[in-house]
Design goal:
Layout: E1 2-11, E2 21-29, E3 33-37, H1 44-52, E4 59-64, E5 67-68, E6 76-80, H2 91-101, H3 106-120, H4 135-147, E7 153-157, H5 165-182, E8 185-190, H6 193-199, E9 202-207, E10 212-218, H7 231-246
Parallel strand pairs: 3-8, 3-9, 6-7, 7-8
Antiparallel strand pairs: 1-2, 1-4, 4-5, 9-10
Helix pairs in contact: 2-3, 2-4, 3-4, 4-5
The structure holds adenosine-5'-diphosphate and magnesium ion (MG).
């Protein structure tokens, strides 16, 4: 049974004359890792806002567990590129902000807090205010903050694009560890083809104006170290994906 389903979704911003995305279909299973890739301005963030329930489609349906998405919910967590952390709160306070606001007792989320602090390497920083941390550490806080709600669907909107290569690779590994640990589904948005190939079991390519689905690919190179050389099949796959991203329609 699918966790999330988009059926023929289109959207136009109320203040805009142009449709941003059109006829988008997508099915996401439980414990699946889907990457949405495409050039800038094709409606990737718009799509994510629709799935999150911040906006409602002009046409079509967004369904989670067969129910129509009516508005934002802790069940669909988002990590933004700019993170939107509270700089003066500590690492632990930032991470626990959501469950605290939901009125949950500390005893219900503290075991997971400790686990997330450990998994993300933030244990030693837990009482430090967030403004003191490096960009990479802040991104870890943002990820842990989204995970503490245990959302069945976690979404990342170009979350790692501002990081240096080394830190980005660390975050990729961390994300995969959390995904295995929490057994959730993840949708990660990126404009980076290599990030898409490393993180996506399936890769949804969006392009054009309005943005439409150019392809949905099963990715044989998911979670593989391509630095050791994967040969001609890999190069062909990457070229094919690049062509789909760059194609104009
Ligand atoms: P992406 O995330 O792929 O870069 P976006 O979803 O941000 O693309 O934007 C898709 C299209 O919608 C773009 O043409 C953009 O100009 C337009 N758009 C985005 N946000 C707004 C807005 N708040 N009002 C009007 N148009 C918008
Ligand atoms: Mg965007």
């Amino acid at each position: 049974m699918s966790l999330l389903e988009l059926r023929d979704v289109s959207y136009r911003y109320p203040e805009s004359q142009e449709v941003s995305i059109e006829h988008v279909d997508l099915t996401v299973d439980a414990h699946a890792l889907t990457v949405i890739v495409g050039p800038s301005g094709v409606g990737k963030s718009t799509l994510l806002n629709l799935i999150a329930g911040y906006t409602t489609p002009l046409n079509g349906q967004v369904l989670m567990n067969q129910q129509r998405v009516q508005g934002p919910s802790w069940q669909r967590g988002i990590v933004f590129q700019d993170m939107a952390l509270y700089p003066w709160l500590t690492v632990a306070q930032n991470i626990c902000f959501g469950p605290k606001m939901r009125g949950l007792a500390a005893t219900t989320y503290e075991p997971l807090l400790t686990e997330l602090l450990t998994e993300t390497g933030l244990l030693a920083f837990q009482d430090q205010p967030v403004y003191e941390l490096s960009g990479g550490l802040k991104q870890r806080v943002a990820l842990a903050r989204a995970c503490i709600n245990q959302p069945p669907l976690l979404m990342l909107d170009e979350s790692f694009s501002a990081l240096d290569n080394y830190t980005r690779n660390e975050m990729h590994q961390l994300l995969l560890n959390l995904w295995r640990r929490l057994e959730n589904s993840i949708i990660a948005i990126t404009h980076d083809i290599d990030e898409a190939i490393f993180l996506g079991q399936r890769i949804l390519v969006i392009n054009g104006k309005p943005g439409t689905v150019a392809a949905m690919l099963d990715n044989p190179y998911f979670n593989q170290d391509v630095t050791t050389g994967l040969g001609t099949d890999y190069v062909a796959f990457r070229q094919k994906l690049l062509g789909l991203i760059e194609q104009t329609n």
